[in-house]
Design goal:
The chain is built from ten helices and 19 strands. The chain is α+β, with helices and mostly antiparallel strands and 404 residues long. The chain has a seven-stranded mixed sheet. Strands 8, 9, 15, 16 and 19 form a five-stranded mixed sheet that branches. Helix 3 packs parallel to helix 8 and helix 8 crosses helix 9. The longest helix has 28 residues. It is globular.
Length: 404
């Protein structure tokens, strides 16, 4: 799995500037080998970004140079713009791992540099985050290509969130009846009001903005995302195996079910608990028990399942690049649930390493819904309370739609 190094202080300043301007982007680190061979291995996030922006779908691409796709590209500095092309392809070797290369890139980067790829009007724009001071270029009195690109993209990004906020104010400030009286009734109606069709797509809901709706009086935690374990790394190889080993019988079901919360603070009634394995960069769900000597310390009995932290980071970044957390007031009127939107928290760009810390602190927990009587699919939901949200999403705005 491709793993990019952490940003240095200069790069982090550039990233923060892009985030504050609401610029969507993907980043690539150019290794010495990649620099020498003219090869860039694309991460899951890069592939997801190019797919979301309608540039390319690596999953549908055949292997070999004859199937590569060329995309018009521009390399930007604080003084010039270089028109070039990028090739997107899957080689015959190396299991067809997705790759790309920006022609003439070597003239603008050094090995170990990190650069941003930004899509605008079906073109790729490349900026070296390790060398170019983006904020300084943007504030310069001299007109330059970085100014033009950021201004155009910022206006587009702001227009989407403004458009979404306007639709919510217009359509959900007053009482709206839901079509079904169920836990999911409000969320489904919010999407219906915004013209979003129901689907199982893991990408954000409204033009790149994720929607999370919650009743104000509900005590349930907000779901960040769902993600199944990596079965290749896990001791248990399926959800059914986990339910059979650690679940419980119910009178209305002819098999074991497992619907519990799992935390890193302590094991639950089934003996299941989470553990962040920093050395191997994994999140582990293990089976624990108290020893006979009553020392008070839990000991691990069995491995259960594993997630790689990098993949969890990718899911979080993909799902919550920008999110509207919608709190609603609800009431029952003649047997029909009605709601109106009260407040919206608008968050952007989660701190990915902080996700691991919050897991270890028990502020992010895992809800298992396995082998349910309803017959719904098995889910592994990573959740956190609203009160902890600022620890993961430091940049947010709150919009008041209705006063209490």
């Amino acid at each position: 799995m491709i793993h990019m190094r952490e940003y240095n202080a200069f790069e982090a300043k550039n990233v923060k500037f892009l985030v504050n301007k609401q610029i969507q982007y993907a980043t690539i680190q150019i290794t010495q080998t990649g620099y020498n061979k003219g090869i860039l291995d694309t991460t899951v996030l890069v592939r997801a970004y190019l797919l979301e922006k309608g540039i390319h779908d690596f999953e549908k691409q055949l292997r070999g140079q004859e199937h590569k796709k060329m995309v018009n590209s521009y390399i930007l500095t604080d003084t010039e713009i270089k028109n070039t092309q990028s090739s997107l392809y899957r080689p015959e070797t190396k299991d067809g791992d997705p790759r790309m290369w920006v022609y003439q890139l070597k003239d603008f980067v050094n090995p170990d540099d990190i650069f941003a790829i930004i899509v605008h009007n079906t073109n790729l724009f490349v900026i070296n985050l390790s060398r170019i001071d983006i904020g300084k270029a943007y504030r310069s009195s001299l007109i330059n290509p970085i100014q033009d690109l950021i201004n155009n993209l910022h206006n587009v990004a702001t227009s989407v969130s403004d458009e979404l906020l306007g639709l919510i104010r217009d359509r959900m400030s007053n009482w709206v009846p839901t079509k079904v009286l169920a836990d999911t009734g409000v969320g489904r109606e919010v999407e219906y009001q915004l013209g979003i069709s129901m689907n199982a797509n893991k990408t954000p809901d409204y033009k790149g903005i994720e929607l999370k709706s919650k009743r104000q009086k509900s005590n349930t935690k907000g779901t960040l995302f769902t993600n199944i374990p990596d079965w290749n790394l896990s001791k248990c190889k399926s959800s059914r195996e986990i339910a059979d080993k650690y679940g419980y019988l119910r009178p209305d079901l002819d098999r074991k079910t497992l619907q519990v919360t799992v935390s890193a603070l302590k094991s639950n009634a089934q003996g299941l608990g989470l553990e962040v394995n920093w050395k191997n960069e994994r999140l582990e769900m293990n089976h624990f028990a108290l020893p006979d000597n009553e020392s008070g310390r839990y000991v691990k009995l069995h491995d259960v399942s594993v997630w790689t932290l990098l993949h969890l980071h990718e899911r979080l970044a993909e799902k919550h690049h920008e999110t509207f957390w919608i709190d609603v007031e609800s009431r029952i009127n003649s047997g029909v649930e009605e709601f109106r939107v009260m407040t919206i928290d608008h968050t952007k760009n989660p701190l990915l390493p902080q996700f691991d810390v919050l897991l270890e602190q028990g502020k992010i927990k895992l809800d298992l819904m396995l082998s349910r009587p309803s017959g719904r699919g098995d889910t592994y939901s990573f959740k956190m309370d609203k009160k902890h949200r600022t620890l993961l999403f430091p940049e947010s705005e709150t919009y008041i739609i209705n006063m209490v």
